[in-house]
Amino acid sequence: MNKKFFLLPILFLGLFLGSCSDDDVEEVVDRIRTIDDIPVSETASVDYLPINLFEIPIETDVNLRQALEDETGTDETIDQVEDIELDDLDITLVSADDQENFDFVNSVTLGVRTDELTYKEIAHLDEVPTGQTTIELSTTDEYLDDYAKSESLKLVIKFESTEDANNLEVRLDMEFDAKIDPSLIDYINA
Q1: Which is deepest, 43, 75, 83, 150, by most CB within 10 Å?
Q2: What whole-number distance in Å separates Cα of residue 31 and Cα of residue 50?
């Protein structure tokens, strides 16, 4: 008698899973659409970056709304984003007086903020290798949904430097991954 009660839940689970058609399973899988490697490039510049131990911030605007629109072909995508995160980030030294590479920098941190939302770190490099003109930062797996939807989104680059840099300009090449709400999938595929 006890064996029958033990097998009863297994029997119900089997019946439930067996009753799901391939279309039902496919519908659940189709509910999540991931867009990988959404490219975004921005430049940031500052006239003077002094020697500092406190990572002085440099800010620049970024428009993730436009990047998503370009990727999907619709301006409604940003409102349908469920999860968006920075997947990859390279910073390239475009120019700086008396600096040929990033040897004047000890560490770099990248964050985001908006007029309404506080600063959130999304990438960092604690020890910048010597002789490099392009550095890759480690990302933090932080979701940026509310930040991405803001029209006042700013990138905040913080450099801890060992030497002064004048007329510093850097390019940030980023890739974002986003999950889109199911209600948009049919619209995008149409």
Answers
A1: 150
A2: 50
Q: Which amino acid is at 120?
A: K
Predicted confidence (pLDDT) at residue 54 exceeds the cutoff of 80: no
The percentage of the chain sitting over the pLDDT mark of 90, rounded to a whole number, equals 52
